[in-house]
Amino acid sequence: MTAAVQPAPTATSPHRDVWLAMRRGFRCRCPKCGEGKLYTSYLKVVDRCPVCGEELHHHRADDAPPYFTIFIVGHFVVAALLAFDELWPDAPLWLHAVLWTSFIVLASLWLLPLIKGALIGYQWALRMHGFDERQE
Ligand SMILES: [Zn+2]
Predict the structure, then answer these.
(1) Cα separation of 4 and 20, whole Å?
(2) How many angstroms does the Cα of residue 55 sit away from the middle of ligand 1?
(3) How far is the CA of 111 from the centre of ligand 1 (A)?
(4) What is residue 12's predicted lDDT score, i.e. its pLDDT?
(5) What pLDDT digit, counting tens, does each position of 4-40 carry?
(6) 24: CA distance to ligand 1 center in Å?
(7) How far is CA 51 from CA 31, 32, 54, 71, 93, in A?
(8) How many A from CA of 91 to the centre of ligand 1?
(9) Taking burial as the number of CB atoms within 10 A of a residue's CB, which of 82, 84, 91, 110 is the most buried?
């Protein structure tokens, strides 16, 4: 995630701020303008930004968003479960099952589009895949 892998900006391809694009994507907005919606439905990415017209169908997020979602949610769940077990060591197992299953499902569904958006912003900022207008 360093700027060193980013192609040098030219007169026809200005510098793209990686962190800004990732923040915009995390907010489910277009990585270029930050205004247009990134999704047409839960995880379906728009072909073009409705505001600035930037083509967004080039993204190749693939299985990276679920990987990072599981990684993040898993760390929170393990920490919360250990803390919960210290506070209430005799908690019934049904409570653990209901509590942690609900948390894992809801947190994953909430986080998945945000992480996918951030990864699309990352790919856009680094001109990965078809996001480099110089290769078209
Ligand atoms: Zn846009």
Answers:
(1) 16
(2) 9
(3) 22
(4) 64
(5) 455 555 556 788 999 999 999 999 999 999 999 999 9
(6) 10
(7) 12, 10, 8, 33, 50
(8) 49
(9) 84
